[in-house]
Amino acid sequence: MIIKIDARKLAVSEVETLDQVQHERAARRLGDLETPCLILDADRMDRNIVRLRERLAPLGVSLRPHLKTAKSIEVARRVMATREGPATVSTLREARLFANAGVRDIIYAVGIAPWKLAKVIELRRQGVDLAVVLDTVEQAQAVAATSRETGLAIPALIEIDCDGHRSGVLPNDRDRLVAIGRALIDGGELRGVLTHAGGSYAARGDEALRRCAEEERHAAVAAATILRDAGLPCPVVSVGSTPTAHRAGDLSGVTEVRAGVFVFFDLVMAGIGICQIDDIAISVLATVIGHQREKGWILVDAGWMAMSQDRGTSRQEVNQGYGVVCDSRGRLFDNIILADANQEHGIIKVRPGSGATLPELKIGERVRILPNHACATGAQHRSYHVVRSASDLVEGEWQRFGGWY
């Protein structure tokens, strides 16, 4: 017997599962949760969202949040301007699941591979305005060819390299920009240009961050000017990173800003100076499972499988190990860090040279660990357990998703 499965119904049911509203497990306490698990302080998250919106409003640009950090329908609905977007994603799975939840204005902000265009067309046929990103003539030709074959013009943005951090076309490479644009409009749609100042993560101090923001803006606007002068359309000029979004002083010529980790922040952002540790909205709840008193260790059940192996602060002035440690209500211990980790064991120590003392934590006691990198730590977990400020009441559980397709 052959069983036929309706893929569209399956996709819808998948979103309904992901979008299980927080009432299923309401009225629990932090002490009732199995550990390790991911905690989201909704009050901190809401403040972080409002802060960036209010900062960008007088600069005359819209916010297109990058949902790769949250990977959650519930969080997306709080950070987007409307339930339909605009939004940025980093995987086609994100695009599909957010689209199934009603998001209609999406940029897939990773260089497009030709084989993925069939999936792009599938979403566009469902009424989703999904745009792709590219930086070569070959990609533009593939987009144009697929557009002609299907009768659906795929919109694309040309990625600009504003700081040598990653991919993209140099903003003054007129020949390459124009060649890509012309190849694209032979069936596809040139939507605009897009850049990301990834180099801003290495900047220190407000002045350096402002320079990164201006270099990002200038590169995108210069590339847009080249395209327009060549008679090509360029309605969208898209820039963004969390550091530059918070330090840009002038966004003339820019139409939208993308940022993602600002929703939660993390220790890397705190080390750059974009936020305070008290702004970090996610943490990993862990249980004390042992002591090595002669070594000055407290062992917890959150290792690198719960925290991720990202130790981005090791390149900053203050090395935060795998994360900084708080009590179960989120109150920071003085100079106590998750200094080392195995797969399922975390080792809490006093920060070297600080002169602090290890807290008295009993077996079974709970702690919360603030992460180096919110995106990487979040990716280790399937859901957020939602609390507010210092309350231990778990208001709900919001599902996360991972994967690429």
Automatic annotation (TrEMBL):
* Annotated InterPro entries: Ala_racemase_N, D-amino_acid_metab_enzyme, D-ser_dehydrat-like_dom, D-ser_dehydrat-like_sf, PLP-binding_barrel
Q: Does the keyword Lyase apply?
A: yes
Keywords, comma-separated and alphabetical: Lyase
Family matches, as Pfam families: Ala_racemase_N (PF01168), D-ser_dehydrat (PF14031)
Q: D-serine dehydratase-like domain: from which residue to which, for each copy?
A: 281-388
One GO term in the molecular function aspect is: D-serine ammonia-lyase activity
Which example biological process does GO assign this protein? D-serine catabolic process
Annotated signal sequence is none
Task: Answer whether the UniProt record assigns the keyword Lyase to this protein.
Answer: yes
Q: PANTHER family per the record?
A: D-SERINE DEHYDRATASE (PTHR28004:SF2), ZGC:162816-RELATED (PTHR28004)
Q: Which family does it belong to?
A: Belongs to the DSD1 family.
- From the Swiss-Prot or TrEMBL record, give the protein name: DSD1 family PLP-dependent enzyme
